[in-house]
Amino acid sequence: HDDTCGGGLRWQIPPTNPGYSYKNSIANGCFFNLGARLARYTGNTTYSDWAEKTWDWMISVGFLNKENYAIYDGADVSNNCTQINKAEFSYNNAVWTLGAAYMYNHQTGSDTWKSRLEKLVDHGLETFFPDGIAYEPSCEGVGTCTTDMVSFKGYIHRWYSTMTQLAPFMAPKVLPVLKTSTEAAIKQCTGGALGRQCGFKWNTGKYDGRTGAGQEMNVVGAVSSLLIGDAAVPVTGDSGGTSKGNPNAGSKPNSFQRPETPVTAGDKAGAGIVTIIIIGSLCTALTWMSIGA
């Protein structure tokens, strides 16, 4: 997190990594989601404050369109994030939707977060579930989806289903769509010698000849999303959670390392003796090699 583009997280952490100059919706969406979930679990308002700040930044920078609730991919810091890549991916919508659901649940049915959640879901269903079947509009139609992109359908299925636990009023709108989409996903898993490999395109009704880990993960995610009715609602620290947190952890530099002890005169003397021995041994070896030559 830095001040470029008025704040926000970069896509990469090491400056040498490709993408370090890029700030995007998924990096900030994960941060927002984490803040919302920790706020609900712990009741600590510091986490919800950061979630709110991240939401506000997304709107201010233009990654989240406040008119139609489209979530764009990101932008480069070299132009102060003004040239936005407006590609839309389902996992961006899904991670922000799930975070909004946690905020809604944490704030006991907040009207503000209810409205935000509804708008995210309405845009998500319209954009990523045409005819009720999962679809990646930014790459699927033209066949340019990369290895990571072909795994996004599973994420939106799983996160949308979890969202209905936190905001049950959304279940009648969302769960039937997930069911229709899952049926289409299963129908096309007819590839390979055994006739059970899954492809990426679910809306064709047949295996597309392209399989891999992402494609299989998608279908597993879709099928498991329909089991949400048998799953327990995520717990909090007051409702059965056993994890004990420490909000001050990591506040001291290198707190995981042993403190350094002061160097004494004896340490210095010992180091000097060792240095003399090493230099003497090196000189002896060089002399011996010279005589031998």
TrEMBL record:
Entry annotated with the keyword Chaperone: no
Keywords: Glycoprotein, Glycosidase, Hydrolase, Membrane, Signal, Transmembrane, Transmembrane helix
Membrane-traversing stretches: 269-291
Pfam families linked to this entry: Glyco_hydro_76
Biased composition (Polar residues): 244-258
GO MF terms, alphabetically ordered: mannan endo-1,6-alpha-mannosidase activity
Catalytic activity, as annotated: Random hydrolysis of (1->6)-alpha-D-mannosidic linkages in unbranched (1->6)-mannans
Annotated stretches, region: Disordered: 237-264
Record InterPro entries: 6-hairpin_glycosidase_sf (IPR008928), Glyco_hydro_76 (IPR005198), Mannan-1_6-alpha_mannosidase (IPR014480)
GO biological process: carbohydrate catabolic process; fungal-type cell wall biogenesis
Domain of life: Eukaryota
Listed EC numbers: 3.2.1.101
Matching Gene3D superfamilies: 1.50.10.20
Stated family: Belongs to the glycosyl hydrolase 76 family.
Stated name of the protein: mannan endo-1,6-alpha-mannosidase
